[in-house]
TrEMBL record, chain A:
GO terms for molecular function: ATP binding; ATP hydrolysis activity. SMART domains: AAA. Residues 13-254 form the ABC transporter domain. Pfam families: ABC_tran (PF00005), BCA_ABC_TP_C (PF12399). This is Urea ABC transporter ATP-binding protein UrtD. It comes from the Bacteria. Keywords: ATP-binding, Nucleotide-binding, Transport. The gene is urtD. Gene3D superfamilies: P-loop containing nucleotide triphosphate hydrolases. InterPro entries: AAA+_ATPase, ABC_AA/LPS_Transport, ABC_transporter-like_ATP-bd, ABC_transptr_urea_ATP-bd_UrtD, BCA_ABC_TP_C, P-loop_NTPase. GO terms for cellular component: plasma membrane. It comes from Gemmobacter lutimaris. Signal peptide: none annotated.
Automatic annotation (TrEMBL), chain B:
Residues 387-407 are annotated as: Disordered. The gene is urtC. It holds the Pfam family BPD_transp_2. The lineage of its organism: Bacteria, Pseudomonadati, Pseudomonadota, Alphaproteobacteria, Rhodobacterales. The chain crosses the membrane at residues 45-64, 71-90, 140-163, 170-188, 217-239, 267-287, 293-312, 319-336, 356-380. This is Urea ABC transporter permease subunit UrtC.
């Protein structure tokens, strides 16, 4: 393993030659992936293609056996950083199932996510200002939860929880957003809104969307990366990859 | 901001009010300054109970709020007791030795006094030298800060090792049990420097106050304990409110999610573990002078399990619940085990509460867990539970269960 540290690159995230094996099963196999600072990218692939493992590696939950993962204009390796450090560096993650703090109110959830100091000591002496409250209200309004601020997050509907989680992501102000199946459990209208939001977000930051739903990806209208057996099978526009015979065989043909 | 801390936390205000009333009532009824309706022995029981309430508060912060089921916090409590105990015992023995040597024709040198103290304290374990750990015991100024430092540093090292390795749930509980057991076994040894299983005794006598009757002393300690409990309650209410409290509850319910928000979860756990260890130690430092004696049996693993039971019965995740649980269970416990509860003759068998109390306590614990998961404290707010079809409030082991939470 050679430490690969390129000088200034045009990509925000660069994953190269990454492999990871779980109990002999090679979940990620020499995977390389790069995304620019303002780019929307869809990642598709059949079950077990390594989509979630890929996200786990980028967010620091899983350590790869080999390869490098760098982030930022002046690339910093993410491999030696903890999950929390990676999140603070600007990587935000949206889970497949909505994960919000169910015993806490919508505003508490958003306050926790708001970009601010994260160390115990600083948080202990942190007191919310009018500016923080305004920002929380603004975020809640943005996802249609303005009337639900004092409600416990656990009471929200599945779709509302998805929106709350998206608002929490926005509150973090990440530079790279990893979004796992955002459309799951959403109504048709909500899907439309989600697509619009993701496209809008990608104007100012990098957004990686993992999704099964082809219709949804078509509406994102962006570059698509197809994963298969832990590595990239094809990359390009949706029309380009759907014409690829290998892609048809492993994914679309079924 | 116009809203103060107390208006935002009405339960804290109520608690402080009730505590003040209770303290005033006891002071007026006790022997020391009042009409003498409450015997001194019971004042001591009440004073000790207040200290137990404080350690229960600490347990509630670490378990009820942060979801870390530590079964070792009574070790920190006892360590705090040992640290004050060393000073009390040294100072008291020094007074006796000086008095005894006062009659000798040549005034004793400082070394002779120190040697006399060492022989007095360690004669019982066959030693005559003061061990290293007693280096500071001669001075309250040097010894009393150790009440915070020794348990604090121990908690910091233990917590750092455990949390860094991401030991969670049952494994962490077992590890804390192992810690308290190891500490107890170490202290049981005569050469540990703390008088082995004899422990430290005579702690009820404050140096320089030999003339003061125990009736006065007991009420002073009672008042100090009440003040300490009030201060502890305010501190922990402050810590558990605001964004910090929100982060703690987030750790309890879903720590991985909080990591992805950028929070150094291990740092938070370490902070809370150490803080609560120090609060427990201060509680112990005031408890043992009222008990008069401390020995390694106080660090038995069961003591820390009882602590968890108090908090569970009182209702975890509510500070007042912890206080109620500790007060009710420990007072009932001393009533039943003190031989005051009348035995029940069944003809073929007599129920002796001294033997059956633990069974009753166990039963109460099971009943509370099954039928009143929010504990006695939960009876006060009468909020409904959320309807979650049995799902708990987060994926972690310590997460609130459906019936524990408020809608």
């Amino acid at each position: 393993m050679t430490p690969f540290a390129p000088a200034r690159t045009t990509s925000l995230l660069e994953v190269s030659g990454v492999s990871v094996t779980f109990d002999g099963f090679r979940a990620i196999n020499n995977l390389s992936f790069a995304i620019g600072p303002q780019e929307l990218r869809a990642v598709i692939g059949p079950n077990g293609a390594g989509k979630t493992t890929f996200m786990d590696i980028v967010t620091g939950k899983t350590r790869p056996d080999e390869g490098t993962v760098t982030f930022g204009e002046v690339p910093r390796s993410l491999l030696r950083m903890s999950e929390a450090q990676i999140a603070r560096a600007g990587v935000g993650r949206k889970f497949q199932r909505p994960t919000v703090f169910e015993d806490q109110s919508v505003s508490e959830n958003l306050m926790l996510a708001l970009k601010a100091a994260r160390t115990p000591w600083r948080v202990l002496f942190w007191r919310e200002t009018a500016k923080d409250r305004a920002r929380v209200a603004e975020l809640a309004a943005q996802v249609g939860l303005a009337d639900h601020l004092p409600r416990k997050a656990g009471e929200l509907s599945h779709g509302q929880k998805q929106w709350l989680e998206i608002a929490m992501l926005l509150a973090q102000e990440p530079r790279l957003l990893l979004v796992d199946e955002p459309a799951a459990g959403m109504s048709f209208l909500e899907r439309e809104q989600t697509t619009a939001l993701l496209v809008e977000l990608a104007k100012t930051r990098a957004v990686v969307v993992v999704e099964h739903d082809m219709e949804f990806i078509r509406r994102l209208n962006c570059k698509v990366t197809v994963l298969h057996e832990g590595s990239v099978l094809a990359e390009g526009s949706l029309d380009h990859v759907t014409k690829n015979p290998q892609v048809i065989e492993v994914y679309l043909g079924r | 901001m116009t809203r103060t801390f107390l208006t935002r936390n009405p339960s804290t205000l109520w608690f402080l009010l009730l505590l003040a009333l209770f303290t005033l009532g006891v002071t007026l009824l006790a022997e020391g300054f009042g009409i003498g309706l409450i015997p001194t022995a019971f004042v001591k029981v009440l004073g000790k109970t207040l200290c137990l309430c404080l350690v229960a508060l600490a347990m509630d912060l670490i378990w009820g709020y942060t979801g870390i089921l530590s079964l070792g916090h009574m070790a920190f409590f006892a360590l705090g007791g040992y640290m004050t105990g060393m000073w009390l015992m040294y100072a008291r023995t020094e007074e006796i030795v000086v008095q005894a040597l006062a009659g000798s024709p040549i005034p004793p040198t400082l070394e002779e006094v120190a040697q006399g103290v060492a022989t007095q304290i360690f004669g019982v374990v066959g030693g005559s030298d003061l061990p290293m750990v007693w280096s500071f015991a001669y001075s309250a100024f040097l010894q009393l800060p150790l009440v915070l430092i020794v348990p604090g540093v121990l908690a910091l090292i233990f917590g750092w090792l455990a949390f860094r390795a991401r030991v969670n749930g049952v494994y962490l509980s077992i590890l804390t049990q192992a810690m308290t057991l190891a500490l107890a076994l170490y202290l049981f040894q005569n050469d540990s420097g703390l008088r082995g299983n004899n422990g430290l005794s005579g702690l009820q006598n404050l140096p320089g106050l030999a003339e003061m009757p125990q009736s006065t002393l007991s009420i002073l300690f009672f008042l100090a304990s009440a003040l300490l409990l009030a201060a502890g309650y305010l501190l922990l209410a402050w810590v558990s409110s605001g964004k910090f409290g929100s982060a703690l509850r987030a750790i309890r319910d879903d720590e991985q999610r909080l990591r992805f928000l950028g929070y150094p979860v291990e740092g938070y756990k370490l902070f809370v573990f150490t803080l609560t260890a120090m609060v427990a130690a201060v509680a112990g430092a005031f408890y043992y002078p009222q008990a008069g004696i401390i020995n390694p049996a106080e660090l038995a693993p069961i003591a820390s399990i009882y602590l968890a039971v108090w908090v569970a019965i009182g209702g975890r995740g509510r500070l007042y619940g912890a206080v109620i649980g500790a007060a009710v269970v420990s007072l009932l416990s001393s009533w039943f085990t003190g031989g005051m509860a009348p035995a029940i003759p069944l003809g073929f068998y007599t129920i002796n509460w001294v033997d059956w109390w633990t069974v009753l306590l166990g039963l109460a614990f099971v009943l509370v867990t099954l039928f009143a998961p929010r504990g006695i404290g939960g009876l006060f707010d009468r909020l409904p539970s959320p309807r979650r079809h049995g799902a708990q409030l987060g994926p972690d082991d310590g997460a609130l269960r459906e019936k524990e939470a408020d809608a």
